[in-house]
């Protein structure tokens, strides 16, 4: 395991089924965080840096190469953290990287409408809706990380969005306070 510098800011994973509001949450969090955070949309990173094993025509998505993704992100993690990793999955990220995992959840009827508005093929809408109903992403997070760092938040409307971002900002403030106590400053 490679050693990394003490973190000046946390590493937060915002995950959830496509359409639950990950990117919107991450962007607002960057604006409101008391500590500097960089938002990385991992799906965009995969496309831009060619961190994939090709395009799946049936699902209309790139097939992520998780080893390449981890290798690309490792230097940023080791440079002190301060990242929001926004992706529909989370178990690719090593546990040692992650300070908080936020799993966004949405009422499946609302989710269907959101994915339909994005122009997703019916099969992809059905698959993602089923995953949401079955709590697939939440279970994945709970299996990959310590229970105390995984939190599930509803993401049905603007009130939820504002409440969630406020709650995460409070968590960041507590994280910073704990870091200061741990370092004796």
Rounded Rg: 16 Å
Work out the strand percent: 15-25%
Structural class: alpha/beta
Number of strands: 7
Helical percentage: 40-55%
Oligomer: single chain
Number of folding domains? 1
CATH topology: Rossmann fold
> CATH class, please?
Alpha Beta
Number of helices: 7
Secondary structure layout:
Blueprint: E1 9-16, H1 22-32, E2 38-41, H2 42-48, E3 52-56, E4 61-64, H3 66-78, E5 81-86, E6 100-105, H4 108-117, H5 122-133, H6 136-144, E7 150-154, H7 158-183
Parallel strand pairs: 1-5, 1-6, 2-5, 6-7
Antiparallel strand pairs: 3-4
Helix pairs in contact: 1-7, 4-5
Please name the defining characteristics of this protein:
185 residues, alpha/beta, Rossmann fold, five-stranded parallel beta sheet, two-stranded antiparallel sheet, globular
Describe the structure.
- The chain has one domain (9-174): Rossmann fold.
- Helix content is 48%, strand content 21%.
- The chain has 7 helices and 7 strands.
- It has helices at 22-32, 42-48, 66-78, 108-117, 122-133, 136-144, 158-183, and strands spanning 9-16, 38-41, 52-56, 61-64, 81-86, 100-105, 150-154.
- The protein has a 5-stranded parallel β-sheet with strand order 2-5-1-6-7, with helices on both faces. Strands 3-4 form a two-stranded antiparallel sheet.
- A hairpin with a 4-residue loop joins strand 3 and strand 4.
- The chain is globular, with a radius of gyration of 16 Å.
